[in-house]
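Case study 2.
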Amino acid sequence: MKSERGQALILIALAMIAMLGLTALAIDGGMAFAERRSAQNAADNAALSAAYSLAAGGTKAQAEAAAATIANGNGYTDVTINIPPLSGPYQGNGEYVEVIINSTTDTVFASLIGVEEVASTTGAVARGRPQQAGTLAHGNAIIALKETGKSTMLYNGGANVTVTGGSGMFVNSNDADALFFNSNITVSSPGMTVVGGYKTNASFPWLSAIKTGQTSQKIPLPPVSLTGKIPAIPAAPTCSTNGTYSTSGNVTTFTPGKHNSIIVDSGKTAKFKPGVYCLNGNFNINGSGIVSGEPGAIKFVLSQSLNLGGGPHTFDNVEFYSTNASLVLQNKGDTLTANRIRFYATGSGQVIVNANATFKADDAFFYFGTSDFKWNGNSTIKLKAPPVGDPFAGLLIYMPYTNTTSVEINGGSTVDITGTIMIPHADLTINGGANMNAVNSQIIAYTTKFNGGGQTNVEFNADENYSPAEPPIVELAQ
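Prediction:
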């Protein structure tokens, strides 16, 4: 019995040693784990701080300093900051910053067996990308956005379409016959990408190179894809006083303010001084009447359509604000030329260029809330989108997704344009005989149809088209 009591004491002693070992492991291990978690939090915050610096346009040195400040402020001095990371999936990418923290934890019980401290290495990678310009629709020149349906991009007999630059053409429909080439057509493009498939009665060299079944490249429809990317359309200005006019010979000069009907008879000239004109009635130019604006910004708030007969009509800088009023070039020989022009129609207002009329502007933007533009047979259109620095830079025509009005460019028209035509929920038809030369342009429509007899050339250049700003990105990558 005494020997058994001795054995029990030995077992109890061994158990106590084991329990002390487990307690030491739990205490020292817990302390090491807590320190590692603290170091990881510091690394995450330091990497994010550096990423914020990069996203705000800071230099590499500024981003490194931001990361070091956070790490040091949390008590860590053994810190390595790599911009860009030296290894891993983000190696060499200057949008990413890597923070590595080495730390140690002093032991309590493990020191009894010679382990004085536990070393730990933690790291974090964050991304910081500044705001930058984006390219719409994968950099394609002609795009049909409709997500379903047959022949959403259609080439009818006699159509002649040439695309240069960019990725080519894109069809967003997932239908097996989303794209249709009819017979007797000529099509040339750097490429053709189709979410669904295509059908053809024609044959041309690159037909077999068309990429079909490209579901991964499907473009989300507006307004989701354009939310926050289109600048707000400015509200119509107001007039607080009445305008005046004075006549000398055949010339009538108008000053800004409220005006009733303005009618310019054949052989007469109307000149407008810079400012805002609020028109409560008709604005007609008859016969060979002429309208011109003095240098400076002239803004017309229209209650009824402006019918421009005669001409040549010239403006330096002119803006038209309308709900349902239209701007109409009526007849053969009618000409409107402007260095800068804006047309904002929140309702059914249109821009109509009738047969044999001419419309030219070097800095132009048109907004159609519920209606469209009409370039009729034998008209001449020469328009260029606003330059860099303007809120609508590169955007020539915009119809919001709520606008489903069909658009036609009719036979005989000569169209030379630069900039993006964005009509994302409207069907676009370019009819036979229309000669459309879209230099440095992009055409984004719900569906696109090219009918026979005309030549359509679209040359894509991202620098000349609408490139909405992509917001800054700050994210913890790993």
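The first strand starts at residue 79 and ends at 82.
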